[in-house]
Specification:
Number of strands of chain A: 8
Largest sheet of chain B: 3 strands, antiparallel
Strand content of chain A: 15-25%
Strand content of chain B: 5-15%
Distance between the termini of chain B: 54 Å
Largest interface: A-B, 35 and 41 residues
Oligomer: heterodimer
Order of helices and strands of chain B: HHEEEHHHHHEEHHHHHHEEEHHHH
Distance between the termini of chain A: 53 Å
Radius of gyration of chain A: 17 Å
Number of strands of chain B: 8
CATH superfamily of chain A: NADH:ubiquinone oxidoreductase Nqo5 subunit
CATH superfamily of the largest domain in chain B: Cytochrome-c3 Hydrogenase, chain B
CATH architecture of chain A: 2-Layer Sandwich
Low-confidence stretches of chain A: none
C-alpha cells in the first residue's frame, strides 16, 4: 500500500517535470497534476508497475474550473488496496486529451459521458459520441457557462 | 410444403439469401428493468453485437447537485438507485462528512448500517424476483416481494416513506427508532432466515433456471476488473473484494461477516448463476450484520449538532460505498460555498452495464436477457 505522496515521488523520478508538485490539501484528498502529453504513459506505467498496479479504473470525470477544464482519473488497486486521483488541466478553448480506453476498457463509457456532459475530446477513443443525451443535443450541460435551450424539437419548458 | 423442400436442388439452398438482422429491444421491454434500449445485431439466433442505448431517465442529477445546498441534495440521491435509497443517501452523506470533517454519533452510524443492510436485502429480493421473471418464472417474484414488504413496513415506521426515505442525513439520521421497530426488525430476521431455503428450492436449484444461467455470460476475473465491474458482478467472478471490508465506513469494522464469492458451482466461474448466487448469500450476511448492530446498538444522539447550512471547506474527496449493485462513489469538489462546485456520481449500474457488448457477442438472443438480468441494473442510476 502506497500513500499519494509516495506514488507522487515514484512518478516524479520516472516522468520528471510532467508531474506537478505535490500539494497536501487542508481538507479532502490530494490530487496529482499530470501534463496532458504524459497522461497515457503515466497511466500505463501506473497500471503495469508492480508496486502501484492500478488495475481498476474507478471513474473518469471532468471539472469546469471556469478558467480551465480538468479531466480527473480515479484509480484503485485490488492488489494493494490503495487509490490515487490524477488530474489533467486542459485548455478551455480546446479541451483535448488522449483516451485511456486502450488501457482500461472501463474508460470507454466514462470518457463518452465526460465528452457528452463537459465536451472534453478524448483522442483515440473508439467511439466518442454522446451517451446520456440525444445525439442532436447542443452544448455540454455541466459546463458552468451552459444555458439550457428554450426548446427541444418543439417542446418548450416554462 | 415437404414436397417443395425435397424438390429444391442443393444449389438453390446455397443461393438462399441470408442477412444480419438488427433487432431493437426496449426501451419499453419488460426484461430491460426500466428504460434500457438495446440494439442487437443477430446472425440467425446468434448475437454478434449488442449496443445499449441509455439516457432515457436522465434527470441531470449532477447539475442539480451544483445548484442546491448540501442538505438539499440528499432527497435527490434517493432517486438514483431507487431500490437502494438508504445506501445512496448514506454514501452521499459520508462524502460530505468526510470533506467537512463531521463526526457522526455512534448510534447514528449503527442505525445507518441497519437501514443500509435492510435495503440491501430488499434490493437483492427485487433482483431475485425480477431475474426469475426475465427467465419466465413468475412465482419467485411474489415470494421476493412478500419479504420485501416487511422491510418496506420497517422503513415506513422509521422514516415515514416506503421507497424514497430521505433517512440518512448529513451528520446522522432523520429520526431515532423505537423498541417497536427494533422488534419488527428482529421478527423480520427470523422470517427471512426461514424463507431463504424456500427461495433456493424454488429458483436457485431449479434445473431450468440453472440451464438458463450456468455457463452463460461468463466474466473471467481479469475482464471483470478491466471493465470496472463492482459488487456482486465482481465477486461473482471470484474476486473477494468488498468496500465494507477493505475500507470500512460507518463502523462496518465492528461487525463480523463473510464476503461471498462465485465458485462456478453450477457451471463456470463468473457465469450468470454465480452472480445470482452471490446476491442470495449476501442476504444471509446482511442479516448477520443487522443482528450484530441491533445487539450492540448504543444509546445516544442520532444526529450531530450542525448549523442549518453545512460548511464544507474547499477541497475534493472521493468516497466509495458498497451498494447492492456495486461501488457507489461520490466525487465531491467544494470551493467553500453552500453548494458543491462539482458532484459526480460513480454509479455501479452504469459501469457494470458497459460490459454488455463484450458479453453479448456470440450468445443466443434469449441469453442476452439472462445476461442483462444477472448484471442487475437500475436505470435511475445508469442515467442519473
Amino acid at each position: 500500500m502506497m500513500s499519494p505522496a509516495e506514488i507522487h515521488a515514484l512518478l516524479r523520478t520516472r516522468f520528471g517535470a510532467a508531474i506537478a508538485d505535490f500539494v497536501q490539501p487542508s481538507a479532502g484528498e490530494p490530487v496529482l497534476g499530470i501534463a496532458p502529453a504524459a497522461l497515457h504513459d503515466v497511466c500505463l506505467f501506473l497500471r503495469n508497475t508492480e508496486e502501484t498496479c492500478f488495475d481498476f479504473l474507478r471513474l473518469i470525470t471532468a471539472v469546469d474550473w471556469t478558467d480551465r477544464f480538468s479531466s480527473v482519473y480515479h484509480l484503485y488497486s485490488y492488489n494493494h488496496y490503495h487509490s490515487i486521483t490524477l488530474s489533467v488541466d486542459l485548455d478551455r478553448s480546446n479541451p483535448c486529451v488522449c483516451s485511456v480506453a486502450d488501457i482500461w476498457p472501463a474508460a470507454n463509457w466514462h470518457e463518452r459521458e465526460s465528452f457528452d456532459m463537459m465536451g472534453i475530446v478524448y483522442q483515440g477513443h473508439p467511439e466518442l459520441s454522446r451517451i446520456l443525451l440525444p445525439l442532436d443535443w447542443e452544448g455540454h450541460p455541466l459546463r458552468k457557462d451552459y444555458r439550457a435551450p428554450e426548446q427541444y424539437h418543439g417542446v418548450k419548458h416554462e | 410444403m415437404n414436397s417443395a423442400r425435397e424438390n429444391r436442388s442443393p444449389d438453390a439452398i446455397e443461393s438462399l439469401r441470408t442477412e444480419e438482422l438488427m433487432i431493437n429491444m426496449g426501451p419499453q421491454h419488460p426484461s430491460t428493468h426500466g428504460v434500457l434500449r438495446l440494439v442487437i445485431r443477430t446472425d440467425g439466433e446468434l448475437v454478434s453485437e449488442a449496443w445499449p442505448h441509455i439516457g432515457y431517465l436522465h434527470r441531470s442529477f449532477e447539475k442539480i447537485g451544483e445548484s442546491v445546498n448540501y442538505n438539499q441534495v440528499v432527497p435527490y440521491t434517493d432517486r438514483l438507485d431507487y431500490l437502494a435509497s438508504m445506501n445512496n443517501a448514506l454514501a452521499y452523506c459520508l462524502a460530505v462528512e468526510r470533506l467537512a470533517a463531521i463526526e457522526v454519533p455512534l448510534r447514528a452510524a449503527y442505525l445507518r448500517v441497519i437501514m443500509a443492510e435492510l435495503n440491501r436485502i430488499a434490493s437483492h429480493l427485487v433482483a431475485f424476483g425480477t431475474y426469475a421473471l426475465d427467465l419466465g418464472a413468475f412465482t419467485p417474484f411474489l415470494y421476493g416481494f412478500r419479504e420485501r414488504e416487511d422491510i418496506l413496513a420497517i422503513f415506513e415506521q422509521a422514516s415515514g416513506a416506503r421507497l424514497l426515505y430521505h433517512y440518512p442525513r448529513i451528520g446522522g439520521v432523520a429520526r431515532d427508532i423505537g423498541p417497536d421497530t427494533v422488534q419488527a426488525i428482529r421478527r423480520f430476521i427470523t422470517v427471512m432466515r426461514a424463507a431463504w431455503p424456500e427461495y433456493n428450492a424454488l429458483l436457485s436449484n431449479n434445473a431450468i433456471f440453472i440451464k438458463r444461467t450456468a455457463n452463460v455470460g461468463i466474466v473471467p476475473r481479469a475482464q471483470a476488473i478491466a471493465h470496472g465491474l463492482t459488487g456482486p458482478c465482481l465477486r461473482g467472478s471470484g474476486i473477494s473484494y468488498d468496500v465494507r471490508k477493505a475500507h470500512p465506513y460507518s463502523h462496518y469494522e465492528d461487525f463480523t461477516f463473510a464476503i461471498p464469492v462465485g465458485e462456478g458451482k453450477m457451471g463456470t466461474l463468473g457465469d450468470c448463476w454465480d452472480r445470482y448466487w452471490v446476491r442470495m448469500v449476501e442476504i444471509l450476511e446482511s442479516l448477520k450484520i443487522i443482528e450484530q448492530a441491533l445487539d450492540g446498538l448504543p444509546q445516544g444522539p442520532f444526529l450531530a449538532k450542525l448549523p442549518r447550512t453545512v460548511k464544507v471547506p474547499a477541497g475534493e474527496v472521493y468516497v466509495p460505498c458498497e451498494n447492492p449493485r456495486g461501488e457507489l462513489g461520490f466525487y465531491l469538489v467544494a470551493q467553500g460555498k453552500p453548494q458543491a462546485m462539482r458532484l459526480k456520481v460513480r454509479a455501479p449500474s452504469f459501469c457494470n452495464l458497459s460490459i454488455t457488448n463484450a458479453l453479448a457477442r456470440g450468445v443466443l438472443v434469449a441469453d442476452v436477457v439472462a445476461i442483462i438480468g444477472s448484471i442487475d441494473i437500475v436505470l435511475g442510476e445508469v442515467d442519473r
